[in-house]
Amino acid sequence: MYTTYHLTSAQEVSTDILDAIKATFKSKPITIIVEEDDSDFDLTADMKAVLDERLQEDESTYLSAEESINQLNKKYGL
């Protein structure tokens, strides 16, 4: 069993969280891993260039998100 806690700041770690972990896992062995949430990222210049190119494409050739996913599934088996 595992539980994930998402906190907006390390300052949110409280004894309540520790008590919840103790209550959930009782005397079972556990592993606690702490990692920085790096889901926010900045676009590189290359990424911005690709997006700018896409904005200039003819709208009549656009694919829907569903069609794009279908084509990626066919090509790469995603």
Could you provide a short overview of the structure?
This protein is mainly α and 78 residues long. It has helices at residues 15-25, 45-55, 65-76.
Q: Whole-Å distance between the termini?
A: 27 Å
Counting DSSP E segments of at least 2 residues, the number of strands comes to 0
Strand content: under 5%
**Structural class from helices and strands?**
mainly alpha
- Shape field: elongated
| SSE ordering | HHH
**Radius of gyration, Cα only, in angstroms?**
22 Å
Low-confidence regions: none
Descriptive account of the structure:
The chain has helices spanning about 15-25, 45-55, 65-75. It has a domain at about 45-75. It starts with 14 loop residues before the first helix and ends with a helix. The radius of gyration is 22 Å and the shape is elongated. With about 80 residues, it is an all-alpha fold.
Structure keywords:
single chain, 78 residues, elongated
Topology of helices and strands:
Blueprint (H helix, E strand, L loop, with lengths): L14 H11 L19 H11 L9 H12 L2
